[in-house]
Design brief:
Layout: H1 4-17, E1 40-45, E2 50-54, E3 60-61, H2 66-78, H3 99-103, H4 114-125, H5 130-145, E4 151-152, H6 154-163, H7 165-176, H8 184-195, E5 197-199, H9 201-207, H10 209-212, H11 227-240, H12 246-252, E6 257-259, E7 264-269, E8 273-278, H13 289-302
Antiparallel strand pairs: 1-2, 1-8, 3-5, 4-5, 6-7, 7-8
Helix pairs in contact: 1-13, 2-4, 4-7, 4-8, 5-8, 5-9, 6-8, 7-8
The structure holds glutamic acid.
GO molecular function, one term: glutaminase activity
GO biological process, one term: glutamate biosynthetic process
EC number: 3.5.1.2
Length: 309
């Protein structure tokens, strides 16, 4: 078995030097300013050892990686009733596509495309004020990452709100089918803000540990969800976590993972490790280019793919 410390060190060194870095997301103006020459990685093994490299302590906008955690919260609130509001099939479409919604009468394909995540946020919001719902999501992230200093980058949230015409269209369209219960502005406000949570690779990998260990953080002993629920969330990450790049990610990396347009990917090696990588340059499907390359290297070297060594 190769030594994890040297594998992570070599990956960080290679990624720092590669010329192919992808392109930063510029449809959210605040994200367009982020320096693409950054790469960070944090791997937390089953014993809680953190092995990190590159810019692993630099905070970034977690964007759609937050959808894993809002899905976890919404399942805790609504249980299987959640699946009346959102499906769990891969979309095969871009993350912000509107076409499929019409054919499917306003019920989004899965909780990780934008429409699906907005519907999930609406479930968390119901019965609460937007501020309370957002507080609940933020506290959940702080609890999972064991770090009360985690905050929301208000500039990113405001930037997305100003330019989020497509998400507004998706939400209004779902509202017309009764899939959104709350005022569209409220639901979108909470959605934009949870996407704008800022975290480091180490914090994100810590937050994801329950998914790698049957719903339980083995270091704190906290049972976050049942083993069955963790397994199912991982299944949705594997099939839907990278939009219409999900097949390619499974083929190359072979782990449940969720990407965000800020350039982060959270990946889970069941029973072995929780992994967060970050590099702001994206590929054509909106997934971190070097993040994916780094995870491909890591799983190949460590034999961690869920499909075999
Ligand atoms: N907040 C982003 C949006 O709604 C999330 C997209 C992503 O990270 O993939 O467009």
């Amino acid at each position: 078995m190769p030594d994890l410390d040297s594998v992570v060190r070599e990956i960080a060194e290679e990624m720092a030097q590669r010329p192919d870095r992808g392109a930063v997301a510029d449809y959210i103006p605040e994200l367009a300013h982020v320096d693409p020459n950054q790469f960070g990685i944090a791997v937390i093994d089953a014993d809680g050892r953190v092995i990190s490299g590159g810019d692993s302590e630099t905070p970034f906008s977690i964007q759609s990686v937050s959808k894993v955690f809002t899905l976890t919260l919404a399942l805790g609130m609504a249980g299987d009733r959640l699946w009346k509001r959102v499906g769990r099939e891969p979309s095969g479409n871009p993350f912000n596509s509107i076409v499929q919604l019409e054919r499917e009468r306003g019920v989004p394909r899965n909780p990780f495309i934008n429409a699906g995540a907005i519907a999930v946020t609406d479930v968390i919001l119901s019965g609460h004020e937007p501020r309370e719902a957002l507080g609940e999501i933020l506290r959940f992230m702080q609890f999972l990452a064991q770090d009360p200093s985690i905050t929301i980058d208000e500039r990113v949230a405001a930037s997305e709100k100003r330019t989020g015409f497509r998400n507004t269209a998706l939400a209004n369209y779902m509202k017309s089918f009764g899939v959104i219960e709350n005022p569209v502005d409220y639901t979108l406000g909470v959605y934009f803000h949870h996407c704008a949570i800022a975290m480091t690779c180490r914090q994100l990998a810590t937050a994801g540990r329950f998914l790698a260990h049957n719903g339980r953080n083995p270091s704190t002993g906290h049972n976050v969800v049942s083993a069955e629920r963790a397994r199912r969330i991982n299944a949705i990450m594997l099939t839907c976590g990278h939009y219409d790049g999900s097949g390619e990610f499974a083929y190359r990396v072979g782990l449940p993972g969720k990407s965000g347009v800020g350039g982060a990917i959270l990946a889970v090696a069941p029973g072995k490790a929780s992994i967060a990588v970050w590099s702001p340059g994206l590929d054509a499907a909106g997934n971190s280019h070097l993040g994916r390359v780094a995870l491909e290297r890591l799983t190949q070297r460590m034999g961690w793919s869920v499909f075999g060594a």
